[in-house]
Amino acid sequence: MLRRWLLLSVPVCVVLMSGPLLAAGDPAAGREKSQACAACHGPDGNSPAPQFPKLAGQYPDYLVHALTAYQNGERKNPMMQQMAAPLSEQDIKDLAAYYASQQGLNLRWKLK
Amino acid sequence: MGNKNLFILLGASVALLASVNVQAAGDAEAGRKKAELCAGCHGIANYRNAYPSYRVPKLGGQHAEYLIAALKAYKSGERDHPPMKGSAASLSEQDMLDIAAFLSGK
Q1: ipTM associated with this complex
Q2: Cα A79 to Cα A44, A52, A76, B80, distances in angstroms
Q3: What is the nearest CA distance from A95 to chain B, expressed in angstroms?
Q4: Mean pLDDT per 10-residue section of chain B, whose length is 106 residues
């Protein structure tokens, strides 16, 4: 009886631990989801227009924060709030992972 | 002699008008000095403050116009972030132009 319950605990633990692992952003999925964003931010996040910030190469956790902030109104911008509204948490992570994986922004000072 | 004076007047007017643009542009070299404080958070790879927990965003190569808009928004409180508000509070319009010119460069 005890052995059966112990055996059951293995898949239960796997399921419980899989959340954080699966929840990581997928850049390939992010690329697909970024079609709407490309109009302003460019296909790879290197926005050609100076009023729309470059996203390419930005830290993914910062991008997650920004999109979430637009969603909950912490950051106010009518266009971005509209763009962020339909995104799920996974969408946000995937988009962030995609833009983070692109070449663009850098550390201006190159300090270590 | 009348034509010469007119020519001088025209030349001076053009120079004056042109100088407005020069002054309004950002000076990247001046910006480099002014941005030294910014490097403390924005210049270190993967830097996180104690709070919030997301990494301080990269600014190198960002559009100058966007950087200036962001600095103004932090200064006015339209964008709510106390560390940035503190950083932007003391910046003049020219400071912002210069810093943005520096950051947007290579």
Answers
A1: 0.81
A2: 19, 11, 9, 18
A3: 16
A4: 81 67 78 95 92 93 98 97 95 98 92
